[in-house]
Amino acid sequence: PLSSPTVVLLDFAKAHGELGWLTHPYGKGWDQLQNVLNDSLIYMYSVCNVLEGEQENWLRTNWIYRGAAQRIFIELQFTVRDCNSFPTAGGGSCKETFNLYYAESDVDYGTNFQKRQFRKIDTIAPDEITVQEDFAARNVKLNVEVRSVGPLRRKGFYLAFQDLGACVALLSVRVYYKRCPAVVRGMARFPETVAGADSQTLAEVRGSCVAEAVAEQAPALHCNADGEWLVPIGECLCRAGFQSLGDTCRACPPGTFKAAVSSGGCQPCPPHTLPAPAAAAACPCEDGFFRAPEDPPEHPCTRPPSPPQAVTALGLGAAVQLRWAPPADPGGREDVTYSVTCEQCWPESGECRPCDGVVRFSQPPRGLTGTEVTVTDLEPHVNYTFTVEAQNGVSPYSHQRSVASATISVNQTEPPRVTSVSLDGRTATSLVLSWTVPLRQQSRVWKYEVTYSKKVDENSYSVLRCEGTSVTLPKLSPATAYVVRVQALTADGHGAFSPQHEFETLPEGEE
């Protein structure tokens, strides 16, 4: 614990005999003397009426102003002669102790002394008694005793010393109280605090953080009756941009930073950042480099990846397998993903438009982590351009895109594909269907092949061929669901099946 200075209320030794304390009875008992001790002139109050039988001699201090004191400490330095030094002393009434008293009051009573106002603090007994041989050799045994009294509530108080027949010399009476000193601990300032009156309890004192420090839990120390700080609670920590130096918070030097409230120190700016100014919580990124919201300030700034490498498109009939290699430069990050977009162009007209919703990807074309994807449902006699974009966590903050493309022409001889099948009419035993193919491809179609089956038994199916783009499916069961697929036939072979469609006949008796 950190001990305190004391506040002295009375120091008899420093008064050099000018205090003029009250003795009772007057002219008897206690007397002020001068003596030389260690070549210094000292004053003392002494009493030594051991040869005169029963004694009751009082020595009372002047009125002492209490001030802020709640508990006072009384330090006594004294000598006591051995009763055996006085063989005929008072018929056995010789004592080797004296009593210490105190009385509180709001006013100074002057010379008015009343014993009943005083309360006993303790009987003071010496640890060492001065025997006759020591006294003759001027080798007196000095005793030091300390007592305390509290709580005090009046404006001031008196002390009194009661002699009942001893040979005592009081060389020093020092009265003081204790304070816990003003202190900075755990980056918090605590004011000077008067020690409490009760030796068993601690006074909680709240501290205030030093400049540029903050507290998660309010800092507190506890001041005990002996003027010691104990039991620290909480602490203050330097805020972002500041580090602790002793009991102060100092700004991070230029070129360093500290990101959060902590006990840690400032760190050098990471790679790809600009030198930070003083007191920085983060270092700004170089031009072209960025920091994502989830990136810690101590990590380097990063940039978007370079474009994907070696984009290839391999045609597989009405499908394309698209492959690429990772970027040569991932931008300093490990969260690279890919997005694939598609554009289709018709050579005859030069018309181009996005393929969105027309083609089908084997997996969602955005946020891909792999380096290949298969694209199906492509139309014949159409040019497709696939663009692969590499992205990472800082791509949204850059205006540049990292893209690479590949173009492929779908097999010109593949028959057209039926894109949709519609229900035009139905009865309990038949379904009337129609479908579409791209207009420019219709002249190449020789016939259409319709495959249908009951939904509950898809393994048993029927096939019907027709020349137009509509058909009636006969001899069906009432109130039954059928699944239907249509494909185009040309001189070059079968085209891809249309998507599977489901239609239901009417219940029997309904038309």
List the helices and strands and how they pair.
Elements (H helix, E strand, L loop, with lengths): L5 E6 L10 E3 L6 E7 L2 E9 L8 E4 L3 E2 L6 E9 L17 E8 L13 E6 L7 H5 L6 E7 L6 E8 L3 E14 L2 E3 L2 E3 L2 E2 L8 E4 L1 E2 L3 E11 L5 E10 L3 E4 L2 E4 L4 E2 L9 E2 L40 E8 L2 E7 L11 E9 L6 E3 L5 E2 L10 E5 L6 E9 L10 E8 L10 E7 L4 E6 L10 E8 L6 E6 L3 E4 L7 E10 L2 E2 L6 E4 L7
Antiparallel strand pairs: 1-12, 2-5, 3-4, 4-12, 5-11, 6-11, 7-10, 7-12, 8-9, 8-11, 12-15, 13-14, 14-17, 16-18, 18-19, 20-21, 22-23, 24-25, 25-29, 26-27, 26-30, 28-29, 30-31, 32-33, 33-36, 34-35, 34-37, 37-38, 37-39
What is this structure, in a nutshell?
Its EC number is 2.7.10.1. With 511 residues, this protein is mainly beta. The protein is built from one helix and 39 strands.
CATH class of the largest domain equals Mainly Beta
Low-pLDDT segments, ≥5 res: none
CATH topology of the largest domain: Jelly Rolls
- Secondary-structure-derived class: mainly beta
Tally of DSSP β-strands: 39
CATH superfamily of the largest domain: Galactose-binding domain-like
Estimated helix fraction: under 10%
Radius of gyration: 53 Å
Terminal Cα separation, in Å?
Answer: 102 Å
Global morphology: rod-shaped
Mean pLDDT equals 89
Strand coverage percent = 35-45%
Largest sheet: 7 strands, antiparallel
Membrane topology: Single-pass type I membrane protein
Keywords: Angiogenesis, ATP-binding, Cell adhesion, Cell membrane, Glycoprotein, Kinase, Membrane, Nucleotide-binding, Receptor, Repeat, Signal, Transferase, Transmembrane, Transmembrane helix, Tyrosine-protein kinase, Ubl conjugation
InterPro entries: EphA2_rcpt_lig-bd, Ephrin_rcpt_lig-bd_dom, Ephrin_rcpt_TKs, FN3_dom, FN3_sf, Galactose-bd-like_sf, Growth_fac_rcpt_cys_sf, Ig-like_fold
GO biological process, one term: cell adhesion
